[in-house]
Design a protein that fits this description.
The protein is 35% helix and 22% strand. It is an alpha+beta fold. Helix 1 (12-23) packs parallel to helix 6 and helix 1 packs parallel to helix 14 (400-424). Bound molecules: flavin-adenine dinucleotide. Flavin-adenine dinucleotide (FAD) binds next to helix 1, helix 2 and helix 14. Its EC number is 1.14.13.-.
């Protein structure tokens, strides 16, 4: 028997595609190579599953720097507000946290995964787990089904590729979908890591003296070689044994990847950390000087403890050329001004990032000009649909990628069912 729709991949995009297709009355088969569905969804948002983000549509799109504008049509049919209503309709209460991030009230990703899988089952979608797909089959310029690694051939009128990116492969996302897109004639744009920790060979990184130090509410900037700011992001960051991570660093990472590529092999990219985004360099200079003046006999390294993260003080003083035991009476003017500059723009030379496999999200993917933004259908191969991270779309962490997965999944599933119904006659 030929299915109307076969969905390959049971992540958020594939599960939503199954739901939307089955709601249209299509016969749907979901195949996944893993033994469990929604594995990556289950570890997203620190295991609490950041299901979507409650921002207005334009803001949402701005937070999807990898081709977010492509999603306007898809959001018309199924937006972040529809995602929230969808889960509440399943009895999953959501709560809003900082920056519009939406989580289940249970704080457990399992609640979300179980609700999605439960809905897929309730709609009568057939499942095949532990069933890796080897190929999508094309016949006479149209999709005809899929071939499993076991050799079994499953026929269908439409196929939805929802195989995700290449990041965190133990969740099942190993990038299998790209080759099937290419076989259909699609371009796959260059893949690269995004939302990924940044590496640095700076002395304070190599010495590990800042490892584990978290900075709150800083601004991290990425600079080009001409000294022009490429991007800045506010938030928290953490020093690691290889460089920097945390939300601000992850958001900057894709710009670092691109700038490093432009710089060529062996090049580095300058980042700066502003420890006090709301103060000017002069404010900082005056404030630090006042602190020293208030306790003139104390060494500045101790005076500054109330203001700066303690472990950063020796590094800052060293970079400014100040002795740790200098006191107010003998503070040299120029290095003190330099110290204020460093507090406002602590430099980090980025030399790379962790790998695409270690990234949270894969940048690049199926070229969007070859995909219909309303239906997610291939413009090159009738009956072939794409959704989720396999597409050349990526957002910041904060629920944006999952939102993109749900909206493209919904549109792909619904359109695939409609196309199959039309083909059935
Ligand atoms: C640790 C972590 C935290 C994250 N946190 C956030 C966050 O807070 N906010 C956010 O927006 N995004 C977050 N993301 C990203 C988000 O989880 C992904 O963008 C999203 O899961 C992509 O959904 P998808 O449906 O496209 O693919 P995936 O979730 O990757 O699912 C793909 C599915 O396809 C299956 N598959 C692959 N190849 C085959 C094959 N050959 N045959 C059969 N099945 C196959 C896989 O087994 C898998 O089940 C996070 C990612 C990670 C790794």
């Amino acid at each position: 028997m030929a299915y109307d729709v076969i969905v390959i991949g049971g992540g958020p995009s594939g599960l939503m595609a199954c739901i939307a297709a089955a709601e249209q009355g299509a016969s749907v088969l979901l195949v996944d190579k893993g033994d469990k569905l929604g594995r990556k969804l289950g570890i997203s948002g620190g295991g609490r599953c950041n299901v979507t983000n409650n921002k207005e549509l334009d803001e949402l799109v701005k937070h999807i720097p990898g081709n977010g504008r492509f999603l306007y049509s898809a959001f018309n049919t199924f937006s972040n507000r529809d995602i929230i209503a969808f889960f509440e309709g399943l009895g999953i209460k959501l709560k809003e946290e900082d920056r519009g991030r939406m989580f289940p009230v249970s704080d457990r990703a399992k609640t979300v995964v179980d609700a999605l899988v439960g809905k897929v089952r309730a709609l009568g979608v057939e499942f095949k787990t532990n069933a890796p797909v080897a190929r999508v089959l094309y016949d006479g310029g149209h999709v005809s089904g899929v071939k499993l690694k076991s050799g079994a051939v499953l026929e269908s009128r439409c196929v939805v590729i929802a195989t995700g990116g290449k990041s965190v492969p133990h969740t099942g996302s190993t990038g299998d979908g790209y080759a099937w897109a290419e076989e259909a004639g699609h371009t796959v744009t260059e893949l690269y890591p995004t939302e990924v920790p940044i590496t640095s060979g700076d002395d304070f990184v190599r010495s590990r003296e800042l490892q584990g130090l978290s900075l709150r509410d800083i601004t991290l900037s990425v600079w080009n070689p001409k000294g022009k700011r490429i991007v800045e992001h506010e938030g928290d960051m953490i020093f690691t044994h290889f460089g920097v991570s945390g939300p601000a660093a992850l958001r900057c990472s894709q710009f670092v990847v691109k700038a490093l590529k432009a710089a060529g092999s062996g090049g580095t990219v300058r980042l700066t950390v502003d420890l006090f985004p709301d103060k000017s360099v002069e404010d900082v200079r005056v404030e630090t000087l006042r602190l020293a003046e208030a306790e003139p006999k104390k060494a500045v390294k101790n005076v500054l403890k109330g203001l700066l993260p303690e472990r950063m003080i020796p590094v800052l003083l060293r970079k400014a050329g100040l002795a740790e035991d200098v006191t107010f009476a003998n503070i040299p003017k120029q290095p003190w001004a330099e110290l204020a500059e460093l507090i406002k723009a602590f430099p980090i030379e980025a030399k790379g990032t962790l790998s695409i496999e270690e990234a949270f999200v894969t940048g690049g993917g199926v070229y969007l000009k070859e995909v219909d933004p309303k239906t997610m259908e291939s413009k090159l191969m009738p009956g072939l649909f794409f959704c989720g991270e396999v597409l050349d779309i990526h957002g910041y962490t904060g629920g944006y990628n999952i939102t993109a997965a749900f909206t493209t999944g919904y549109n792909a599933g619904k359109s695939a069912a409609e196309t199959a119904a039309w083909a059935r006659g």
